[in-house]
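Hi both,

Apologies for the delay on this - the queue was longer than expected. I finally got the 2-acetamido-2-deoxy-beta-D-glucopyranose-bound model through. Below you'll find the protein sequence and the ligand SMILES exactly as submitted, and right after that the structure tokens for the full complex including the ligand.
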Amino acid sequence: MVSLKVLSLLTLLGITTAQNATLRYMPFGDSITEITCWRSLLWEKLQTTEWASVNFVGSGKNENNCKDTKYDRDNEGHSGFLAIDIANKNQLDGWLKTNPADVITMHLGTNDFVQQNKPVADVITAFTKLVGTMRTHNPKMKIVVAQIIPMGIGSYNTKIQQLNAQIPTWAAGLNKTESPIWVVDQYTGFSGSSDLRDGVHPNASGDQKMMNVWYPGLLMALAAAKADQGTTTAVKFIA
Ligand SMILES: *[C@@H]1O[C@H](CO)[C@@H](O)[C@H](O)[C@H]1NC(C)=O
Ligand SMILES: *[C@@H]1O[C@H](CO)[C@@H](O)[C@H](O)[C@H]1NC(C)=O
Ligand SMILES: *[C@@H]1O[C@H](CO)[C@@H](O)[C@H](O)[C@H]1NC(C)=O
């Protein structure tokens, strides 16, 4: 029989180890996630916090010549991809199988409108499937979803605004205590003329704005993921 003293020591060790386990964060999206520099700015900002050890994960390492040799470039940004296609082809399933995550940010929908003028409702349906995939892989996935940035070209912002307007209600409807969804607004305050380098992708000013908007959402998600790790392991050791 294990003595009470040993048992509580084991519990203590369990909690301590779990709280220091590395959290895995997947930046998920299209080219606005892949060939940009907000991930570099975000990583650099995290280095000054308790979240310095967070592991960025994903199958790609592309960026936009960010001139930052230190940051963790791993990401799941896929240039040109539609939310609808990623959902229909079950691509996120494979990506999360290869790179499991505790926390994920999603900025998607731009290509659905810019490339194929898809209906807003179909993008929302795709989002629902993607959230389902995230939770199949990790029932406690902490999810941050962006209301997406405006375009500086064409008249795509009408549909982008319609999508963005629907995201908060959609997210609230899927919200779960163990797998919260936080919505961050990447549209408001982002200029289609002075924050984009080519009418589509953020320049230095846009990258900075995107990082500033992701940051508080990501911190909430990381804190929730860390809190989980403590309780899960503690329960395991006590049982
Ligand atoms: C674990 O994290 C705590 C603070 O969260 C810190 O005090 C402790 O030194 C860390 N332990 C290890 C082994 O890194
Ligand atoms: C989801 O729930 C969390 C609390 O667990 C809350 O902070 C967040 O704002 C909710 N998200 C939405 C979209 O209502
Ligand atoms: C961003 O790009 C726009 C033109 O696309 C330009 O007006 C602006 O000065 C640029 N800002 C930065 C910080 O690169």
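Main takeaway for now: Residues 204-238 form the longest helix (35 residues).

I'll put the files on the shared drive as well.

H.
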